[in-house]
Amino acid sequence: MEVITKSADETQKVGREFANKLTPGAVVALVGDLGAGKTTFVQGVADGLGVKEKVNSPTFIIMRTYKPNFCHVDLYRLESNISEEVENLGLLDLISEGESVILIEWAEKIRDLLPKNAIWVKMEDVGNDTRKITL
Ligand code: ADP
Ligand code: MG
Questions:
Q1: Among 23-37, 59-73, 98-112, which stretch is predicted with the lowest mean pLDDT?
Q2: What ligand has the least distance to the C-alpha of 15?
Q3: Which residues line ligand 1 at a C-beta cut-off of 6 Å?
Q4: 93 C-alpha to center of ligand 2: Å?
Q5: Closest of 11, 95, 20, 91 to residue 50, by C-alpha
């Protein structure tokens, strides 16, 4: 399914609605360039799942967990030894526990480590505050 949004608010709304379909243990793999709107989408999903804290992208923090049972991962800065880093982060353990909804930006970097049932979401900047989201 393809959705076009024309503002960050609209992208958050798409994320909020998408959240309704997620069950505990869901892994959402986000793909798209810098500025495509991945974090904006994640903010909507978090809101839809009842996360009260604001989700953002702090520099140097790769993985952050929120209550209730929500985890945001951004692999942008990982360049080498990626599978080792991801192991150290505890991400794979968190995935196999199956309790948290996990959203991963730059997920293509760990494509082979993700479960087969991961939900892939592609985001593209198509200009003028417009984004194409392929779910
Ligand atoms: P990413 O995480 O993919 O690098 P961000 O979500 O951090 O991207 O940033 C997207 C930027 O683009 C934000 O500044 C946001 O306000 C802006 N923006 C403009 N239009 C949109 C849109 N339609 N959807 C999402 N973000 C948008
Ligand atoms: Mg981001």
A1: 59-73
A2: 1
A3: 5-8, 10-11, 32, 34-40, 57, 105, 129-131
A4: 23
A5: 20
